[in-house]
Amino acid sequence: MTAPQPDSPHTAAAATTAPPAPADARPNDLVEAAGMPVGDGEVKATYDPRLTNEDLAPLKKQTWSSYNIFAFWMSDVHSVGGYVTAGSLFALGIASWQVLVSLVVGIVIVQVFCNLVAKPSQKTGVPYPVINRAVFGVLGANVPAIIRGLIAVAWYGVQTFLAAESLNIIFLKFVPASAALLEPSFLGLNALGWISYAILWCAQAALFWHGMETIRRFIDWAGPAVYVVMIVMAVYLVSEAGWSNISLNLSAGPPMTFAASIPVMLSAIALVVSYFSGPMLNFGDFSRYGRSFAAVKKGNLLGLPINFLFFSVLTVICASATVPVFGELITDPIATVEAIDTPFAILLGGLTFVTATVGINIVANFISPAFDFSNVSPQKISWRAGGMIAAVGSVLLTPWNWYDNDEAIHYTLGVLGALIGPLFGILIAGYYVIGRQRVHVDDMFTMAPTGRYWYSRGYNRNALATVGTAGLVAVATAVLPRPLAQLGLVDVTWLSSYSWFVGCGLGYAMFVWLERRNPQMPVLDADDPHVSVGSTDVPAVVSHHA
After folding, report:
1. What is the full DSSP assignment across 438-484?
2. Where are the transmembrane segments (predicted)?
């Protein structure tokens, strides 16, 4: 077995005339000879171009430390959405200790699931859509890739819009004349909104275009920067309110009995898991860069339970202090900064939450569709092209027109989001139970009918049948309870909170049952030097130079 070689990344040398390529040159050598940039993956001459580019191929080196993974989660948690979500849990009507228990249980579930989905990509050095080829087939993997990509595009637009709202506040405070741009509207968004949206759209695209190392450096400082501002804001608000006026219980109304609080706690746990379900599904896009699985697990421990709890406590302190300071409960950090109404606070807070939202957008909603869309047609769609498709698509969706529409979110993102559970369950069942943590890396890049992951013309029928069946049940669980309650037939609206768990459990169980009834996935020899064996402590097997 051979570990990934510590080669330096290839760089394209500018040349007016490319030297002739040797007859036995590998594909990435040919690309480099032509003066084109080469990605971080090692492409073998045996890899089929229809499945391969340098962004999807196994990495030549894996360098991310525990801190890089920790910083990834900081960027994912430290956002306006994360702030509002954490604050909302404390307003559910249950005691603060029950909220904290729910947070701990929910985020530990997320940590365990992230470790599960991290291992196959870290061990093989490939992103989420590629590792799915071992389960869905080399062509069938496009099904989960496209579903995850579409969800990310929709939320990419929403997060950019939220960041633009923060930027609007800065414009209105420091450029008073910009208020005149609030009236005219085009496609439902005023001129100032378009300007702010365009600025952030271009900034995110530029950051993404510079590649994963630039993104890594950005998230390394973005998360801590938000912490600094959050702590400063908490200290300021507490000093204004007085510590005796701070309450960790934001809920109104009479306290619940313990029996009545149990369903609420379960809903809070489900909300935490659902909130992280998107980045949790495609976490392999990032864990593939981890220098070891141990480093990834340590980063997940720091970034999820420890980081999320600390951020949640800071959130509730800030939100609680807004009651005595401003006379009302404010759970939106942008509105809190605006209410402070000092130029320095608005500038610092506004830019910080813009940075935070850009951070989560890049890691959760830009990188995923970049890999997912590239996987559909690797030679025509590079990683950068895939990301730009997502960026353009996010504008065409005009997220500002439906973000505040509960029905639109419920029936569009609700449907797509419900499919995340089955996709997660199938991947975990396929890799750990059926595949026994063994993957033949090279065969994920071949269209040969003799390839282990060719299945039936490139598709694993068991996986597709499971997605269709479990997905239908999960979608029904997500969208039907509300109209049934509105019609007065039956009130099971609580069931919608658990659509991810329903889909995940059913996807896992059904795929295992189908594979044992009619096996499709191969049982590989752990001693094969081309096979990555995740159940051992041996480094990732890529066999670049075999």
Report:
1. EEETGGGG---TTSTT-TBTTB-HHHHHHHHHHHHHHHHHHHSHHHH
2. 69-91, 97-118, 130-158, 191-209, 221-238, 258-278, 299-323, 343-364, 385-403, 409-434, 462-480, 492-514
9: which residues sit within 8 A by CB, 6+ positions away? Answer: 38, 40, 60, 61
If we measure between CA atoms, which residue out of 277, 272, 334, 305 comes closest to residue 90? 272
Mapped onto helix, strand or coil, the DSSP state of residue 114 is: helix
Which residues make Cβ contacts (< 8 Å) with residue 192, sequence separation at least 6? 168, 171, 172, 178, 181, 182
Calculate the CA 211 to chain-centre distance. 17
- The secondary structure of 299-326 as a DSSP string is HHHIIIIIHHHHHHHHHHHHHHHHHHHH
Q: What CATH superfamily is the domain 68-526?
A: Hydantoin permease (1.10.4160.10)
Angle, CA 297 vertex, CA 294 and CA 300 arms, to 5°: 150
Residues 308 and 103 sit within 8 Å (Cβ to Cβ): yes
**How far is it, in rounded angstroms, from Cα 315 to Cα 336?**
11
Tell me the torsion sign for CA atoms 206, 212, 213, 218. Answer: positive
Question: What residues does 41 pair with on adjacent strands?
Answer: 59
Determine how many CB atoms are found less than 10 A away from the CB of residue 152.
28
Q: How far apart are CA 376 and CA 385, in angstroms?
A: 12
What is the DSSP secondary structure assignment for residue 132, as one 8-state letter? T
Cβ atoms within 10 Å of 57's Cβ, excluding its own: 28
Strand, helix or coil for residue 138: coil
**pLDDT per position as a tens digit, 355-391:** 877 888 888 788 888 899 999 999 899 888 888 998 8
Which secondary structure element, helix H or strand E, spans residue 365, and what is its range?
none
Which residue shows structure tokens 């077995």? 1
- Cβ neighbours of residue 517 closer than 8 Å, sequence gap 6 or more: none
C-alpha to C-alpha distance for 74 and 77, rounded to whole angstroms: 5
What SS3 class is residue 189?
strand
- Please tell me the distance from the alpha carbon of residue 449 to that of residue 471, in angstroms, as a whole number: 29
Q: Which two tokens stand for residue 124?
A: 């093989």
Coil, strand, or helix at residue 293?
Answer: helix
What is the Cα–Cα distance from 214 to 217, expressed in whole angstroms? 5
Tell me the sheet residues that pair with 456.
459
Report residue 467 as tokens: 């997605």
What is the Cα–Cα distance from 287 to 120, expressed in whole angstroms?
9
- Count of other CB atoms within 10 angstroms of residue 87: 21
Residue with token string 């196959």: 120
Local structure of 546: helix, strand or coil: coil
Angle formed at CA 490 by CA 271 and CA 477, multiple of 5 degrees: 40
Specify the pTM.
0.84
